[in-house]
Amino acid sequence: MVLRDKAAATDLRRIILRYFNPIGSDPDLESGVYVREPSHVLGQLAMAAQGLKVSFTITGTEHPTRDGTGIRDYVLVWDLAQAHVAAVEKLDAVLDQVAAPSTVTNVGTGQGVTVRELVETFQKVSGKPVLVTEAPPRPGTPSVRLPTSTRSTTCSDGPPR
């Protein structure tokens, strides 16, 4: 709201990038925050694979999805960084295209993977088995959380990977 009000009162031009579930790090593993016990899904998987925790917990296995687990559109952190750079570089062209001083664009693939599929992929890539524990869903957690990505390519050279 603050940015919208500021844009209405001044000549501020802006692109707001909206995304969910960033995952991973930069390709050289040189940036990011080190947390002893990360709460994010990839950190929890890595801890379980390394034996730093007993198992990886999937919260919610009875969702109306293809395997009962939640579906998320995980977007690589590096892709998000590139989307931010592209938004700055293409600011004028994008805002001219939408004929407005500001716009909101979603960054995502528009497709998702289930938590169980993410675990399977992690195991294949890492070569390490992960013991999985199932638990009830957290209150208020949606079965599917996917941004529409109809405008996500506006600022970039293609959709996130």
Give me the secondary-structure topology.
Elements: H1 2-9, E1 14-18, E2 22-23, H2 41-49, E3 56-59, E4 71-72, E5 75-76, H3 77-89, H4 91-98, E6 102-106, E7 113-114, H5 115-126, E8 132-135, E9 144-145
Parallel strand pairs: 1-6, 2-5, 3-8, 4-9
Antiparallel strand pairs: 4-7
Keywords for this entry:
161 residues, UDP-galactose 4-epimerase, domain 1, alpha/beta, three-stranded mixed β-sheet, 5 helices
Describe it for me?
By secondary structure, the protein is an alpha/beta fold. The protein has one domain: Alpha-Beta Complex (UDP-galactose 4-epimerase, domain 1), CATH 3.90.25. The protein is built from five helices and nine strands. A three-stranded mixed beta sheet has the order 7-4-9. Strands 1-6 form a two-stranded parallel sheet. The longest helix has 13 residues, at 77-89. The protein is elongated, with a radius of gyration of 18 Å.
Class derived from helix and strand content: alpha/beta
Q: What portion of residues belong to β-strands?
A: 15-25%
CATH topology grouping: UDP-galactose 4-epimerase, domain 1
Total number of beta strands: 9
Q: What's the rounded overall pLDDT mean?
A: 86
**C-alpha-based Rg, rounded:** 18 Å
Estimated helix fraction: 25-40%
What is the assigned CATH homologous superfamily?
UDP-galactose 4-epimerase, domain 1
Described by the principal axes of the CA atoms, the overall outline is elongated
Distance between the termini: 30 Å
Order of helical and strand elements: HEEHEEEHHEEHEE
